[in-house]
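Same chain as my last thread, 210 residues:
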Amino acid sequence: MVRRHLETVSRKPVAAHNAAAFNRLLDAVTLNPRPLILDSFCGTGHSTAELARRHPDHLVVGIDKSLDRLSRHPASEAGNYLLLRAECEDIWRLLVEAGLAVDYHYLLYPNPWPKAKHLQRRVHGNASFAWLVKLAGAGSGKKNEPGRIELRSNWQTYVEEFGVAMHLAGALGRVSLVSPAPALTLFELKYRESGHALWRYIGAAAALTQ
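reply #2:
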């Protein structure tokens, strides 16, 4: 399934509201050019604000399709981030088509869709995975190096599947336990306090566009 998605170009039209959200991103980049960080499926945007605090020289873009989740965003003093109500998949595609590079791409605790019949709803089982890997391989920063991608989950199988999919796409990466640093998301905090083992994949997509 992963190979099929990597070999097929999606022809699904970009939704109008996603195109409008992307134009907001373009306006922000034009007004104040800075390297980009993506926080896909950001939920309430708690992680977006925290990433912005940790990366003050970047514009951090949090993306989530739920207005309800985004409306619960906590107040933050960080001014270097943007929250978009949109489907991540269309934003990934538009970034690739616009030739915009991303230094870091975080996918923090996405819905795992644990039932086997829902494989195609997982990030790596969906047709949009091709856009994700093209975005990761587009190069970032002044050195034109591949961007770094990090996915976290409390379900080890999900992270390992994602790692295998990235390997099939030509990426170099590894699966490991999340270090006991301050939590990036509310889910991470909840899982840690409940005693869950937290897993992550970190990789650089050196061969994705070849």
